[in-house]
Amino acid sequence: MDEPCDRLKLARERAGLSGAKEASDKFGWNENTYKSHENGNRGIPLEAAKKYGRAFQVLPWWILTGAGDDLLAEADELVEPRSILEEIFLAAHRRAQVATRPHVPVDENQAQTALLLFRRQLDEYRKKQGGGR
Question: Cα(34)–Cα(14) distance, rounded to whole angstroms?
């Protein structure tokens, strides 16, 4: 259960859905996109993880990282703590860097710079949504 795609599949199965097509049909998702997320051909963006988390009643960051409990206790828990978002972002950034350039050590300065840009974009997004922090 090391990969987000594995946790996504488990969440779907626990929700009582037999396959990706059934899930896509039930929730009105693009079937090819969902299948690509579940089979690991495409990474799962945060917004997609939120959507899947709501549908399958699991926490989106559990889908993405495996961290914490998987069960969604309350809808309020879908508002992720900033630190968890930052951890997800840094882990994804490092993983992408290793995947694309495995022979080059991870550049922590570059990761921190990317995190600062991510924070700004997140703040702008939240302001547009009316929930700025």
Answer: 16
